[in-house]
Specification:
This protein has helices spanning 21-36, 40-53, 109-123, 126-133, 138-145, and strands spanning 12-16, 57-59, 62-63, 66-69, 76-86, 96-105. A hairpin with a 2-residue loop joins strand 2 (57-59) and strand 3. The protein has one domain: Mannitol-specific EII, Chain A (3-Layer(aba) Sandwich), CATH 3.40.930.10. It is α/β, with parallel strands linked by helices. The mean pLDDT is 92. It contains five helices and six strands.
Length: 152
């Protein structure tokens, strides 16, 4: 599974404005709902429920919120670079400025896990994250995310 299978230039955002974890999740839910046709409130509720199990702030300024929706037909990814880092209750207590939202169909168990692993591997690259933080254009962010020549 490649990252380009999960995201498109239309699902990558260079301009997310949020001052809190909740606000970031709300804005990501709004944008995901507009793209998927799923209910914004349903998306937000799934994400908040997942956060209650433990933070999806994985460290190094990265969060990978994720959840499963009955109304979704295929795995969908959404990426956002925040203007400034926010408190996300991350594992390393560092502010989060890169968010990759992953939504999967309720019956997409193994594919959901494969997609999460792919996103995690992609964002583990310090070089890639540095390039993402230095990019202010959505198309350029998409190109950095899907560039397989960047070392992991």
């Amino acid at each position: 599974m490649e990252l380009a299978d999960l995201i498109s230039p239309e699902t990558v955002f260079a301009d997310l404005k949020a001052t809190s974890k909740k606000q970031a999740l709300q804005e990501m839910s709004r944008r995901a709902a507009a793209h998927t046709g799923c209910d914004e409130r349903e998306i937000l509720n799934v994400l908040i429920e997942r956060e209650r199990l433990g933070t999806t702030g994985v460290g190094q300024g990265i969060a990978i919120p994720h959840g499963k929706l009955k109304s979704l037909k295929s795995i969908q990814g959404f990426f956002a670079r925040l203007e400034t880092g926010i408190d996300y209750d991350a594992m390393d207590d560092m502010p989060v400025d890169l968010i990759f939202l992953l939504l999967a169909p309720e019956e997409g168990g193994a594919d959901h896990l494969k997609a999460l692993a792919r996103v995690s591997r992609t964002l583990r690259s310090a070089e890639r994250c540095e390039r993402l933080r230095g990019t202010e254009d959505s198309d350029a962010l998409f190109a950095v995310l899907t560039d397989d020549t960047v070392a992991a």
